[in-house]
Structure formats: structure tokens, C-alpha cells
Design brief:
Length: about 220
């Protein structure tokens, strides 16, 4: 771990560094996070560290238990597939409903997000990529007129519902493929081709699932 720098709040820096190590797989599932050890490694007191741990717990990345060190969270194969199924149903349905609302401003916003994704990949900043990937999927649903559906898509791409994407540590290996799939979705939207946009969304979400199934296959061997 890197030593904390005083340019931001200590809690924010601790949160970012710990989340990065979870994303990169340096902190593994069920690994304890003893406050005394972690605070010494980061060069901060326990108070900002506890704030950082609380934020990570809210996102489902760690599990906190009274009287015990926090541990890096994990997800079962079955639970991951349940989340993916719900997410796929919502996002595939949504993409078919937004075509008449697609305009140049919307495409520009998507492409700006894509540029950020590409930059994050080139910098090997996969924490940034994950946030931009989350924003991309929420942005896609933002054109849907159904407010409840938009809220559900956002929930499925935020916090605990998205944590298993990070905890599988597959993002560094799959970011370029995910980016290319996002490009194809935008190109279909630009063409105002609803069937193609749906097809590309299905392919993308199916590939996300395949990448997780490969992860679970590897850890069971």
C-alpha cells in the first residue's frame, strides 16, 4: 500500500487506496483488515480509517462485525448470477425503449464517458474505469421515461449490487473488451437501430456473465 498524502481528506485517501487494492486483487476475499495494522501501513490514525471502512462496507466491498476486524467481502456464484439476471432484464428492456429519445447531446455524453473509459484503461486506473462503467450504464437508462426503471438500473449498478463485479478482480483483464462492447452499443444508437442496440447490449451483458463464470471456474479448481 502507498502512504497517505495530505492533499485530500485522510478518510477519502484511505478509501481510495483500499478500494484500489480490492479491485486489483491485492486484498483478497475474506482477508482480514485489522485497523491497527492498516492504519500503520497507511500512516494515519484509526478515526479516518474507520470512516473509509464504513464507506467500503456500504458499497458491499467489506464486511464489518462488532469486535472483529473487517474482512474483504465475497459473493457466491449463485448470488452473482441472480444480480446479473436482474440487471440484464432491466437494461435490455430499457435500451429498446429509448430510441426515440436518442439525440446528439445524448450521444456526445456517452462518447465523453467512453473517452474517460479509454483514458482510465491506458493509465491502468481500473478504479476509475469501474466508476465510468457504472456511469455509462446509468446514463444509458437515463433516457427512459420510466422513473422507477431508471432507479432500479441505478441500484443494480451501485453499492452492494455491483460489488461482486469488483470483488471478482476480473476488471483489469476485461476492461478493454467491455470498452469495445460499449463502443458498439453507442454506434447502434447513433444509427437509430433499435434491434442492433438490443443485440449489442445482450452480447455485452452475456460477456460480463461469461467473465464471471470463468472467474468462479478458476477459483474452484
Amino acid at each position: 500500500m502507498k502512504v497517505i498524502k495530505p492533499s485530500e481528506t485522510l478518510a477519502e485517501q484511505a478509501y481510495a487506496l483500499l478500494k484500489r487494492d480490492i479491485i486489483n486483487g491485492e486484498l483478497k476475499e475474506n482477508q482480514p483488515l485489522p485497523e491497527e495494522t492498516i492504519s500503520k501501513e497507511l500512516g494515519i490514525s484509526r478515526t479516518p480509517l474507520r470512516d473509509a471502512l464504513s464507506r467500503l462496507a456500504l458499497e458491499g466491498l467489506i464486511i464489518q462485525k462488532k469486535g472483529r476486524p473487517a474482512i474483504v467481502a465475497g459473493f457466491t456464484r449463485e448470488k452473482s448470477l441472480e444480480y446479473m439476471e436482474i440487471r440484464s432484464v432491466l437494461e435490455i428492456h430499457s435500451i429498446t425503449k429509448i430510441m426515440d429519445r436518442v439525440d446528439a447531446e445524448f450521444i456526445d455524453a456517452l462518447r465523453e464517458n467512453l473517452a474517460g473509459q479509454r483514458s482510465a484503461i491506458e493509465k491502468n486506473n481500473f478504479q476509475e474505469f469501474i466508476e465510468l462503467d457504472r456511469e455509462f450504464h446509468i446514463l444509458l437508462a437515463s433516457k427512459n421515461s420510466n422513473e422507477e426503471l431508471k432507479d432500479m438500473v441505478e441500484r443494480m449498478n451501485t453499492g452492494v449490487n455491483r460489488a461482486f463485479l469488483i470483488l471478482s478482480s476480473t476488471v483489469p483483464q476485461s476492461a478493454r473488451s467491455a470498452y469495445a462492447e460499449h463502443v458498439e452499443i453507442i454506434e447502434a444508437l447513433e444509427q437509430k437501430d433499435a434491434a442492433l442496440a438490443k443485440e449489442k447490449t445482450i452480447i455485452h451483458l452475456n460477456n460480463v456473465e461469461k467473465r464471471f463464470l470463468k472467474y468462479y471456474s478458476n477459483i474452484s479448481q
